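User: Could you write out the 3D structure of this protein bound to fe (ii) ion? I've included everything you need below.
Assistant: Certainly. Input first, then the structure.
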Amino acid sequence: MEPTMNQQRYDIYAYIHKGLRAYMSDVLAAAGRVDANDDEDVRQIAAAVRGLISICRSHLKHEDEHLHAAMQARRPGSASQALADHAEHKEAFEHIEALLRELEAAQGPARAAAARELYRTLALFVADNFEHMHLEETENNAVLWATHTDDELRALERAIVASHTPEQIALVLRWMVPSMAPAERAALLGGMQQNASAEVFGGVLKIVKQHLSARDWFKLMLALGPLPASF
Ligand SMILES: [Fe+2]
């Protein structure tokens, strides 16, 4: 298939991966800034890293159960690399969680050393995951496009979204929507505006507004048009 044609196919990874790249980068940078002598700083970074790991765990579980299963069913073996990467990521999560417990238990110079180790280990995981997401967006997409129609890919995506809790959806939207290009954001939220209740859509806009620049918010408001009076 020609690359120009591929660009028109539905990319199930594009938006969620933009959000995950932004979320991972944000938590990694926060881990680099942590003050190991400040208990509150340590508490906050431990919570931030655990939150990131929780979303990453759920993301790879959904990919395995829905996307990789769909790939394997229509082209056996085609998800082997991605599945192997995920197995490594699960080990990385446990390693990072062990480092978090060390950081929390340590005091003084040992805690500064634990903070450095956590930062470096998290950086390697993020680096690995960035490479992994590229593989998914290129090689996995090539398989998905060859074996599934866009309607089938959208159905897979709906099944993934439906298996999230409302709290997980809110966190995903908080990172995903501000990380998209304005036209992509307008298309996604325009679709939600048509299909979600005014209350749910208003809640999404409130989350998104906190994390958009004034310029991007203005572009979004222009694209969406009149909003319900309750917003
Ligand atoms: Fe993945």
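The chain has a mean pLDDT of 93.
User: Perfect, thank you.
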